[in-house]
Amino acid sequence: MTRSKKIILWFLVLGPFIGLFSLVQLTSMGLFGDLPTFEQLENPKNNLATEIISEDGVVLGKYFFENRSRASYNEIPQNLITALIATEDVRFREHSGIDGRALLRAIFGAVTGKSSSGGASTITQQLAKMLFTEKPSSGIDRVMQKLKEWIIAAQLEKRYTKDEILAMYLNRFDWVNNAVGIKSAAGVYFNKKPFELDIVESAMLVGMLKNPALYNPNRRLELTEGRRNIVLSQMNKYEFISDSLFDTLKNQPIVLDFKKASHNEGLAPYFREYLRGQLKEWCSNHTKPDGTNYNAYTDGLKVYTTINSRLQTFAEEGLKSHISSLQKDFYKHWKGYSKAPYPKDFEWEQINAIIDAGMKRSERYRKLKKAGKSESEIKQIFKIKVPMTLFSWGGEIDTVLSPRDSIKYNKYFIHSGMMSMDPKTGFVKAYVGGINYKHFKYDHVKVGKRQVGSTFKPFLYSLAIQEGYSPCYKIPNVPVVFDKERWGLAKDWAPKNSGNDFDEMNITLKFGLANSINTITAYIMKQFGPHAVVDLAKKIGIQSKILAVPSLCLGTFDLSVYEMVGAYSTFVNKGVWTEPIFITRIEDKNGVVLEDFTPKTQEAMSEETANLMVRMLQGVVDGVYSPAAGKTLGTGVRLRYTYQFKNEMGGKTGTTQNQSDGYFMGITPNLVTGVWSGCEDRAAHFRTIQYGQGANMALPVFAEYMQRVYADTLETGIYPIDFDIPQSVDDRLDCGESIQGGNNDEYEEEF
């Protein structure tokens, strides 16, 4: 062979490698675009979801652009690691980012046309691609990208351990269905934490790495099982699993527990939405070490809340159970009425005005308005039938309906809001803002406010007791008149009792509260005036503006369930108001505590007054004997006789004018709970107080919640214990009534 031929031969053999080496050198010098800096390699940017964590360690939900939560290497099961290595890069532990043997095999395959020779991309290179390179727009760009991947892979191997690289890779990959990173993927597809994944589940997730859209088990289960079995065969090939185990596992079906990350689903959606706003505000006032503000969607914060997942579950179940049953009663109650659910004396113009108002509050209306449509055009569009999904207690209904008719349909629903808190710590344990977040996003706990009715009366009673009145003080059950001149009214006003009943008997404060008698509360108001009531309301955490007018005694103003629960906690907490709080601490992605939270407190009344009020609120539930009626009466006695609670508890019902709102405030030594129920429009309601009173609309929600709580005391730590009240207080409550007879009954109330 001549010298020239030898040179040509060596050039043909070595030329590609020399050229490749040159290209790599030029790429490393930045000729084909910037490479990541040292700082970027040390801290690769990831969008990490913020996690909302319950008191008992359950992730209630996340805020994210990408549903990514970081898992450490120790949280990842070994079977997932071995599945990954066996399938994607069997010599991962041996090379330094670039697998020379695999590279030669790939080059040989490309030259000879044998595509089955396999690829050369290592796990580290795949990580480099995910972290630092963009999608190529051409073949030349892909070549340049590959060169960058090699360089970045080599740099990653210098700066990170093999275990760290594996964890980074698994934390970065997008498994579709809002499952970014192994922690999210395990939760979305199997409702598990990563370390709980078995071999079959791990193999499926590794199989999806090839093409997660193609091997999506929700769409192509059979194809995904086939890909999973390839992963299992690779594990068997490289002796990570035995032949017999492989034969067993390959025949197992894929069993999903699919829970796509959605804010509409999961525990406490109303709470999570409220918390979102609070967290965004917190982020705007707190900066990271680099001087930029924290981001609730990308910085991987961990928000530890006061919510107890079991109590939250029981609250949601209790509310759903009663309100779904109450809805059936509501349909029956209005069956055959042409103007239902509005009173028959309502004019059609009034009803249409309500529907029009609902239309203008809708997202559809806002979009049409933004698009430049006129009012007449929008009204016409709202009359056109379109496919839609409606809520029902029996499950979603797919139908074709006009948007206007869908508004009419939704007006029929009874809504409810509920909150439960520890009266001593201020920790909110359960927060149910409505009946279904997906279809009805309005929050009836913190955002919504409705007339509180008789649930406000205990605060007037506590004012009287604080000023020296005894629970046994007797007041004549006669009309109390507020004359217009003295009180600045348009006309004289005399509040009525339920059924206009004035028997002229002398009634104790204790009996008056137990049976929500309006004349007694009016008497107290007349003695102390509305300004004293407003001052007390501020001390017990009422932040909403209430006017200093005589009708305060009947609760004719709007407050939130949140405010009322905090206020009632004052009684159980020995006269000290404790601010309801939702967050205990916030940590950054590395577990560094950024802020701890403690509730505000304020002394609102004496301990003795608070203790006396607790006992008087017990009278609402236990009942107080009425010589006139010959039986024990109380608006909350069904807690004893229908729901069979034997432990000490107190409460107060509330029913507003025309039965538009039903309330119940329930107190126990370790939980204070408030419930509101009613329709979206105050004009829609039960026609009779029998169905529309707080004892029927709201009290059963509390009852079903507490039944579930007490059935699970070992897990919740909530036991049916007695109030801590000294005997001296009980002595003051002995009014000489004879508690006799078994004819216990509710006493209905209204404005």
Brief characterization of the structure:
This protein is of the alpha+beta class and 751 residues long.
Low-confidence segments, ≥5 residues, pLDDT <50? 19-29, 738-743
In the CATH hierarchy, the architecture of one domain is 3-Layer(aba) Sandwich
Q: Helix coverage percent of residues?
A: 40-55%
Major sheet: size, sense and barrel closure? 5 strands, mixed
Question: How confident overall, as mean pLDDT?
Answer: 87
Q: How far from one another are the termini?
A: 114 Å
Rounded to an integer in angstroms, the radius of gyration calculated over CA atoms is 34 Å
Compute the number of strand runs.
20
Structural class: alpha+beta
Number of helices: 30
Strand order within the widest beta sheet: 2-1-3-13-14
CATH class of one domain: Alpha Beta
* Proportion of beta-strand residues: 5-15%
User: Which fold does the CATH topology of one domain refer to?
Assistant: Beta-lactamase
Look at the structure and name the CATH superfamily of one domain: DD-peptidase/beta-lactamase superfamily
Shape: elongated
Structure description:
The chain is an alpha+beta fold and 751 residues long. The protein has a domain at 416-732: Beta-lactamase, CATH 3.40.710. Helices cover 43% and strands 12% of the residues. It is built from 30 helices and 20 strands. The strands form seven sheets. The protein has a five-stranded mixed sheet with strand order 2-1-3-13-14, with helices on one face. The protein has a five-stranded antiparallel sheet with strand order 7-6-20-19-18, with helices on both faces. A two-stranded antiparallel sheet has the order 4-5. The N and C termini lie far apart (114 Å). The model is unreliable at 19-29 and 738-743 (pLDDT under 50).
